[in-house]
Amino acid sequence: MSNGTSYEVLARKYRPQSFSELTGQEHVSRTLQNAIDSGRVAHAFLFTGARGVGKTSTARILAKTLNCEQGVTHEPCNVCPQCIEITKGTSTDVFEIDGASNNGVEDVRDLRDSIKYLPSHSRYKIIIIDEVHMLSTNAFNALLKTLEEPPEHVKFIFATTEPHKLPITILSRCQRFDFKRVPVAKIITRLREIAGKENVIISDSSLALIARKGDGSMRDSLTAFDQVLAFCDSSVSDEDVATLIGAVDPRLLADISAAVFGGDTQAVLAGIKRVDMVGYNMRQFCQDLIEHFRNLLVIRSVKNPEEILDLADAELEELRHQAAAFTAQDIQRRLTLLIKADSEMAFASFQRLILEMALLKAALLVPVLPISELLEKIKLLEAGAVHTPALPWNAGRPAVPGTGDRDQREPQRPAPQPARTPQPAAAASTSKPVQHGTHSDWERFVAFVVEKRPAIGSVLEHGSPLKLEPGLMEIGFPAGSYYLTSAQDADSISEIRALAHEFSGTEAAVKIRSITPETGSSPASLAEKKKSDRLQRIESLKQEVAAHPVINEALRLFGGTITDIRET
User: Are residues 215 and 87 in the same domain?
Assistant: First the structure.
């Protein structure tokens, strides 16, 4: 390795100089080589993709293949003066322009004027514009005509990370090549080659950390590798790599996930403390955990996870070992908690607490019984495999003949009672005048009124029969109530008198009085009686349900509680 000012960073020192050295972009290399071999080289190319994946390097390699003194070939010789000048960036016929700093219309006009002239000593004048999306609208417009019909000795190569910002008029005039993110496995292979050339001892796990740090960018990975070598020189440890590049040690992720699945809350909080001690961002660590659990979930969910996960073979094998003891459902439930925590951490100042709470909840999750097992237990209950005493309301009830074995397994439900319907006086066999005393006479009269005049009947349901005598009907309503006001209306009294005459066959005076129900000095109204009866039925049902063994067994199986009881 060189020292001092002559040192050349790895990203430049090991920059690809031929199509065969391009890593992860074989589809681009093959297409360009076929185009060169067949003589179908376009006049304008557009290279798109993430940073550091080889766009500008491919542009230089293409420029060398077109201008190589050995002839137009699918691989440059890299030894002739033309190839050497392009490699060093000193060629007078290959212009590399930064679109961010030369984005004005005047810059494009100067470029357009210069390309009219033939190349000085090369086969083509080649214009490479990096970050071409930074050109202004006027600059694009000035370039359109030249780009569509350039001189035969000119080739354009554009590179950009944001092709959606280019005008469609530019895109339609270029052959587009999309560069992929470089897979982690290929980055590791390339880093291993460079480590061998630099005589550096480093483990595969450290190379995997560096490769993931690059996030699919070969240049970013080489920059991180350069930083590690500057600190560690020829011998690199895993701990140093994790510290230098700000990555989480995979062993810490494995330890915390194991603690979560094992319900070890002490180890969970100790792991979070270790993360905080090294100063690692809590939200970034949460996202690393999410990726870790996602990898485990994929491994447990698909047959060939290596086709989906961008991981090195050693990492994949380690994750297989971790995921072997868990089900996909176990992993998914905890992954959901972490995703929720990540969204909450985006707007919180106490990120460590949110992550701790999420991991503690994940560690204390109650195991979920498979639905098939629950259904099997319910079938056993239905089949009588679990002994259940008879229902309280069926105790002592004789079996219905003709039902066979089914009567021995299932308690008989009580037969539904026919609904009580009011009968008009004409149809009733015992119609008689309203007499003193019996509450049933009042109920029959109100039922008759409800059928004839529902509006009046709904008011009478809230009244208390104070006197029911021949020739007199005295009804009390709560003081200040709507029902008192409605009943005291002259028209209402007249209608009640007419209905009483129709019901009993005799005339009767109707008096409406104000009462105070709370004193208990007057009979209860039908509405109050219905409400009281309903509350008594509900209370009785609650007691019967709480004591029933089948319901208690179902609550135990499902871990539930009774929140409401309704009559059907």
Answer: no
User: 3-state SS of 174-206?
Assistant: CEEEECCCCCHHHHHHHHHHHHHHCCCECCHHH
Q: What whole-number distance in Å separates Cα of residue 459 and Cα of residue 438? A: 20
Query: What is the domain-level CATH number for residue 468?
Result: 3.30.300.180
Residue 436 has pLDDT above 60, yes or no: no
User: What is the separation of C-alpha 495 from the centre of its chain, rounded to a whole number of angstroms?
Assistant: 65
DSSP E strands in 455-542: the ranges are 464-469, 472-478, 509-515
**Chain centre to alpha carbon of residue 8:** 46
Is pTM, for the whole model, over 0.90? no
Stretch 148-164: mean pLDDT: 91
Mean pLDDT of 93-114: 85
Give a yes or no: residue 265 inside a domain. Answer: no
The helix (run of H) or strand (run of E) holding residue 259 is: helix 250-262
Per DSSP, 465 falls in state E
Q: Of 314, 343, 363, which residue sits at a domain end?
A: 363
C-alpha to C-alpha distance for 47 and 176, rounded to whole angstroms: 6
The phi and psi torsions of 278 (rounded to 5 degrees) equal -85, 0
Q: Over 90: is that where the pLDDT of 306 sits?
A: no
Q: What is the CATH number of the domain that holds 328?
A: 1.20.272.10
Poorest-pLDDT segment among 2-6, 273-277, 421-425, 474-478? 421-425
The span from the first CA to the last CA of the chain, in angstroms, equals 86
CA atoms of 252 and 272, how far apart (whole Å): 9
Q: Taken in order 104, 110, 115, 119, is the CA torsion positive or negative?
A: negative
- Could you tell me if residue 264 is inside a domain? no
Query: If we measure between CA atoms, which residue out of 175, 132, 126 comes closest to residue 151?
Result: 126
